[in-house]
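Suppose a classmate hands you a notebook page containing two proteins, each written out with its sequence and a corresponding row of structure tokens. How would you begin to make sense of it? This section walks through that situation. The first entry is reproduced here exactly as it would appear on such a page.
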Amino acid sequence: MDHFLYKAGALHAEDVPVPEIAASVGTPFYCYSAATLTRHYRLFDEALDGLDHLVCYAMKSNSNQAILKLMAGLGAGMDVVSGGEYLRAKAAGVPGERIVFSGVGKTGEEMRLALEGGIRQFNVESEPELVLLSQVAEAMGATAPITIRVNPDVDARTHEKIATGKAENKFGIPISRAREVYAQAAALPGIEVIGIDVHIGSQLTELDPFEQAYLKVADLTKQLRADGHTIRRLDLGGGLGIPYERSNTAPPLPTEYGALIKRTVGDLGCEIEIEPGRLISGNAGILVTEVIYVKSGEGRDFLIVDAAMNDLIRPAMYGAWHDIVPVAEPAAGVERQPFDIVGPVCETGDTFAKARPMPPVQAGALVAFRSAGAYGAVMSSEYNTRPLIPEVLVHEHQFAVIRARPSFEEIINRDSVPSWL
């Protein structure tokens, strides 16, 4: 569910007409609903009711400071994957004890940053990382709390570019070697083993891969405890998918996911962490763009819009589907015509949809890409010297720009020309 609905003939974000926002900030722009973000966080929190748990928002899905501030106010922890994300979380008021540091390539500088500022745990991905973390912590006279990310070799049945739990993926250590690596960790100075981490991928639409992975984690927990390790926390990752295409079978609900967690690992007496990102922010955002031209081609027609692949890379990168709807509510039963919906960047890959049935749309009309709140703005760029587009947050009847569109002058003045040119 989201809070982007037609009212009085126009798409609204909560109680704000989308055309009103467009008139104020210009197009294209991202628009997020605070009510939707809040509801989605609470669904996960409530799904784990009865378990000692923390819902850590995966910041990589959408790391705008306003979103983080909203999440933090609800009680969320943060899952970060870089020093920059760590600093964003701290700037949003998230205490270190609610920040989990994930990622396969943590540097010594990032480790020091987190140890100085406070950290809930490092999710260690490899033996070299473990050794470096020990060296950094010992040199600082600090102790680094860790889980070790195990790779359970489970097929997440998702897009190959966002699968992370198979043997050939770069993430974690093979679960078959976990006892050996935990023994190494326990012998290292500056390291405190507190739990196990697993994350098998993103945009999962079935529960079975989760169940396979979590049952393996449950068995490993018992083995490691028998070996003398204190395993008090299980980080189960994120990855639950969202319905990008409304005609598809809906992915499992957070309540079903929570029931699975309770069934597979709920009897181990561990604190449970989960790290949802996409399901919290994905359907909480739309991308609004204006039609520049309606163009007739050889055997196909095009809607050329002012958003481009640099604003929303997912269709070009993953072949991702987004529902695309006119902001002006179409009449009931109106005939639809197939259009290729494309942007102005000079690449064929700058295509959002092919042969997408649309109601009659003219130049100057606004259209909205649904489910654009995750991996939209955070993956955008200034390719073709196109400014990063505004982000807007709506709360009931009010809205605010939470990232402004830079001017061309600001973009160009970031460059430095050597004196010898």
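The notebook's second entry, a different protein, reads as follows.
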Amino acid sequence: MNNISQDNNLDKYNPWCLEFHQHESLPMADYQLLLDYFNLTPAKLTDLWLHGDIDKLQFLKSEMLITKGFLWSFCLPIVSHIASYLSSNPEPVLLGISGLPGSGKSTLGKVLEKAFQLNNITSSVISLDDFYLPSSELNIAMKDNPWNVSRGLPGSHSLEDIQNTIDLFRKSGEVKAPVFDKSLRNGLGDRSGWMSSRSQVLVIEGWFIGCKPLQPCQNINNFVSIDQVLLDEEIIYRSKVQKLLKLYVPIWDQFYKLFHLKAKDFLYTMSWKTEQENNMLLTKGSSLSGKRLKSFIRMITTSIPQNSLQNIEANIIYELNNSRNIISIKTVI
């Protein structure tokens, strides 16, 4: 190990130093509660990441996909906790990340994988979207939905494939899962093969992960934005979605920890999803656009009651502003 404790320019990478907060937003009172939840101290975390080996410091200095505030409040505590957990519990660990489309789940997943690697922990981050049904089955499952979307809704995934992937991972540490390419079929998407790896940690991310159906006493049609009016066909399909959500709950119950990226305003997802599709067009040459994108966003905002999506029963909730900066962190015992 190459010790870098003598580096004299670490203040801007250290969340307990003033220079860090000149560039980053991080609610420190909430952050301390988060560290308490993970049984971490500032000294323990900085010793591991700032005074460890040169590769970790280079990671902190060069990581540009997410803010340093997100890095220190999400990736580093989670990885540090899992490293400690695995030292006494060697069984494979299943984690979940929930957040509205465009909230940053996939990007966080990439950084999380790198942080695990730097701690000699093998990991795989996959999306719930990868478990979409093959196109022929997907077309049937999505037929006649009022938003005319090709995917995304509860019912568009193979629950059997999800459970088989989890079962195999828990039994052997092998991850075998389908891969879904959203750029295929002119943006409608299709499976493009299968991935296989061996991992100590499996992370599954998705926009309604952890979302449960409403209680019988709750009116399904009450939970929409003040400026939205549900169409009759949307009201009918909403009831179908509630029934389908019940089938996903046994999967949610298997996560060791679930993290929720919660938008302060639910409708942030409209701009987030648009930005996400524009980026996909630039990188892959195909994406949802125009009427299809508008319909997909309408599905997101009306198919599942917003109250359900904004109150995921997660272990840790990161509340985000429209710029995806963390404005609060809540831990749930």
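A careful reader of the second entry would note: The chain has a mean pLDDT of 91.
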